[in-house]
Amino acid sequence: xxxxxxxxxxxxxxxxxxxxxxxxxxxxxxxxxxxxxxxxxxxxxxxxxxxxxxxxxxxxxxxxxxxxxxxxxxxxxxxxxxxxxxxxxxxxxxxxxxxxxxxxxxxxxxxxxxxxxxxxxxxxxxxxxxxxxxxxxxxxxxxxxxxxxxxxxxxxxxxxxxxxxxxxxxxxxxxxxxxxxxxxxxxxxxxxxxxxxxxxxxxxxxxxxxxxxxxxxxxxxxxxxxxxxxxxxxxxxxxxxxxxxxxxxxxxxxxxxxxxxxxxxxxxxxxxxxxxxxxxxxxxxxxxxxxxxxxxxxxxxxxxxxxxxxxxxxxxxxxxxxxxx
Length: 325
Description:
Layout: E1 5-10, H1 14-25, E2 30-36, H2 40-50, E3 54-56, H3 59-64, E4 70-73, H4 80-89, E5 93-97, H5 104-117, E6 121-124, H6 131-142, E7 148-158, H7 175-191, E8 197-204, E9 211-219, E10 224-230, E11 232-243, E12 247-250, E13 262-266, E14 269-273, H8 278-292, H9 300-319, E15 323-324
Parallel strand pairs: 1-2, 1-4, 2-3, 4-5, 5-6, 7-10
Antiparallel strand pairs: 7-11, 8-9, 8-15, 9-10, 11-12, 12-13, 13-14
Helix pairs in contact: 1-8, 4-5, 5-9, 7-9
């Protein structure tokens, strides 16, 4: 491979401009060539600050650019599916931010659009390709901790801004969609199977009506995932994997600093992994999938399974009962 995939970015979301674009610019196979915003001035400012050669004042203009091969979609959750579909119809490959949509039904819409257009499309779960999780998965597979029985996860931050997209119910806001999706996908990765049943409970903000404190139990044939996530608690994140003969603890499971080593503990003994930027890894893996016509890191079939589990947690919390998948 002697060239890079030319990427365009839909919107000037903070995650894109502060994390993903700078990381992809350091990639071996990725080139961010354009950014679009419904506010032309905002797009121009972001392009100038990030050194991007092109900017557009509408998403449509970006999709019409024949030089752009792939689209990164970090728009609010309710816009993930419609604009990913539009991008596919324009012949662009798509890396869409998590969660892939608002429901499993929306994920199926994306699969249909991908297949009709013949493009590659995947979900941006950067943590799944971070070396610390690959190491944890390898340890579990090797039998180092015996048979895996429990994945436990805590993830929280405090955000009470009524204008923030995470606090707008109609836009797919709330703790489960924003950060609860991580323990769902990562426990599925560790157990290498789908949950059979789930039980969920949600506490909703009285003003926003988004879930601000959410807990769930996912029952697998081998064990359980137990997690709590919140948009209105002190910042914290930690993950544990317990087996019949050992345990793994992941210090910062979702967004470890890219300029510092990441650490996991195996039976209390620390393993230190070299610094890396998981957004660089994610972008390059997707670009290589395009260049080599290979599988994307987190395909839509996996995204569909994740949304099925999330849908079931919402149903369980609403109905006060366990839900089967």
